[in-house]
Amino acid sequence: MTSPSLYWLRNDLRLSDNAALTAAAAQGPVIFLYVLDDETPGEWKLGGASRWWLHRSLEALGRKVPLTLRRGAADKVIAEVLAETGAKSLHFTRDYAPWAGALERRVKDICDAASVACHRYGGFLLHEPESIRNGSGEPYRVYTPFSKACFASGEPKPLKPVPDFAPWKGALRSDGLQDWGLLPTKPDWSGGFAQHWTPGEEGAAQRLKAFIADGLAHYADERDRPDRDVTSRLSPHLRFGNISPAQCWHAVRAAQFKAGAKLDKTAEKFLKEILWREFSYHLLHHWPTLPTVPFRPEFASFPWSENPAALKAWQRGKTGYPIVDAGMRELWATGTMHNRVRMIAASFLIKDLLIPWAEGERWFWDTLVDADIGSNSASWQWVAGCGADAAPYFRIFNPVLQGEKFDTRGAYVRKWVPELARLPDQFVHKPWEAPRLVLETAGVALGRNYPHPVVDHGKAREKALAAFQQIKGAA
Ligand code: FAD
Questions:
Q1: pTM for the structure as a whole
Q2: Which of 210, 248, 291, 469 has the greatest number of beta carbons closer than 10 A?
Q3: What is the pLDDT of residues 327-380, one digit of tens each?
Q4: How far is the CA of 98 from the centre of ligand 1 (A)?
Q5: Which positions are annotated as active-site residues?
Q6: Contacts of 312 (CB under 8 A, 6+ apart)
Q7: Mind listing the domains of the chain with CATH numbers?
Q8: How far is ligand 1, taken at its centre, from the CA of residue 339, in Å?
Q9: 424 C-alpha vs ligand 1 centroid, how far in Å?
Q10: Is 339 in the pocket of ligand 1 (CB under 6 A)?
């Protein structure tokens, strides 16, 4: 009998364009193993919203292939499964989290000791982080030259079809997915997620198709508008590998070529966003302390505030700044937040409230369905001004002006902060400026059904700039 090959599923929960599965299938009957490993990532085990996504993705995949589910440290579980099945080869997709390299080395040692061939493949990224270097052979620290180098390195490899595979028929113990308790309880705040998302490979393919049909043409001009629905919403699918970045890239390129020059600008813009994801992982790979340590050392002595009440107001969407509150409530209800609003809400936490960026990073880690160790860390550091390629610290978003610019008529705020829905456009981003009669007519009672601003933005800005002056020059 042919020995089975073990395919270790990780952030590649799909069958198509999957080099690890393709290779495993070519070697023999395939064991599909997913390990829920809450031990190896330490403090970065999956957050609540990610667990919801994982459950639904595994459920979708489990309808197509027989999954073996085990819980524990991945290397130990793999050693057990190799011993139980006599598999002669192991195949997996590379992961770039700071703990993943050491884990993969331990897995390789286990395979070597058992005379099992161990194979690692790419696919989570378009470019291996080691493969893109600047003229001096160093990793990039700045996005624009990095993205140019990526474009110059050519188009991604052709996609791999779903391979012909035979699932292994041997007896193997598996946990029940329901028993893992991945879905939130007490409180079950994920109730609204299913209306917004279809995790899994089919859901990702439908999302990509819908984006190309409806969003792509407007993407370059309107991607900063939270009141429009033009972005792809592919991030959680990419995070869990329901789709590969190469599949997104090739589909958008195909649409661009089909449309002649009409989609050139907007397609390039989308591909550049995919490269922001690559850049985040490039930074994470070369600076693995990115999730916890400010890239710019002077920020280690930043005079942050301890302000649990303000942190809670931010988390609950009760800061009194409508665009920030709308974003934080969208996040809680749906597991996502529009990118522009992520920037505004993050800037508000860090610069208006002077709360450490790591607190916001943690909250996003738990509540985002796309919570991703590369993009989340790099983005928080970017907004804080302490990242590699950061917006300068002194560029402080004004939440009122940002709201008025990108949510021009307040449709986004009205959707997520319904208590402000009846305010006229001119006050929807600054209810405290509305005359009493206007507030009364709109049913807004500041301090009762909608909070007064937790800080005065003008004063907070001055305080933030003074704090920044304290660390300038320190290193
Ligand atoms: P689209 O605009 O359709 O972009 C296509 C894809 O490009 C996205 O799906 C995503 O994979 C990638 N992308 C787009 N913008 C960025 C970016 N700025 N950085 C990295 N990749 C990008 N993104 C995550 O995937 N996970 C996170 O945990 C995460 N945390 C963030 C935290 C903060 C404070 C900020 C400001 C941004 C964060 N982002 C994160 C980046 C970005 O907000 C999301 O990727 C984007 O909103 C996802 O929506 P979309 O799929 O519709 O994006």
A1: 0.97
A2: 248
A3: 999 999 999 999 999 999 999 999 999 999 999 999 999 999 999 999 999 999
A4: 20
A5: 273, 276, 304, 339, 357, 380
A6: none
A7: 5-123 (3.40.50.620), 125-157+201-286 (1.25.40.80), 297-474 (1.10.579.10)
A8: 6
A9: 32
A10: yes
